[in-house]
Amino acid sequence: MIRVMIAEDQPLARAGLVAVLESESDIEVVGTAADDRRALELARELSPDVACLDIRMPGRDGIAVARELCGPAADPVIPVLILTTFDLDEYPFGALEAGASGFLLKDAEPELIVQAVHQVASGQGTIDQSLTRRALREFVERRSLQPVTASRASEVLTSREHDILLLLAQGMSNEEIARELVVEVSTVKSHLARMLPKLGVRSRLQAVVWAYQNRVVGVPGPEGR
């Protein structure tokens, strides 16, 4: 059972999200909040598997709350899925920077929201496809390389880990990577578990960002907006 906490200041939107998630037999909404203070209290009290946070709430925004729940200083780390009606570039960029595992627009189809919750709960990052290229390009243009550079990664990653990183950057799931490499899904997961600490990242999504940021794969151009 995936235990989810929802922070959303609009009652109707909050109720709709609860209804969508609780229609799934393996998801339980364990708490809801309407502002940043209550969101942090509930998250620390309940330790949910996923915290779904709205961008704009009374007090601090969802990105600031995410930073406390899943940022570098967070202990324990609570995976965060950001949900918003706003698709401005700075929001997905800020969500990634704060350590969020996913960023999705609220007008996404219900099944995509459910899928995103499953992905975040299982340690797989997710970001709305219409925003991916913009967010990655923004990340590359506005930030310098992380401590583990591409040249250094070639020394610490095995050839199979490097292959998996490239396939991750193409948006493949564990199952798709396993089929591409003709290996078991459990083997892919084992490689990922060893690879992420080597890159100094916590999630698949951060690994993809790292790959673009360090030019391991090409950054999509403006025509990909």
From TrEMBL:
It comes from the Bacteria. Residues 150-215 form the HTH luxR-type domain. It comes from Kocuria gwangalliensis. Signal peptide: none annotated. The keyword Transferase does not apply. Residues 3-121 form the Response regulatory domain. The keyword Transcription applies. The modification 4-aspartylphosphate is found at D54. It holds the Pfam family Response_reg. This is Response regulator transcription factor. Keywords: DNA-binding, Phosphoprotein, Transcription, Transcription regulation.
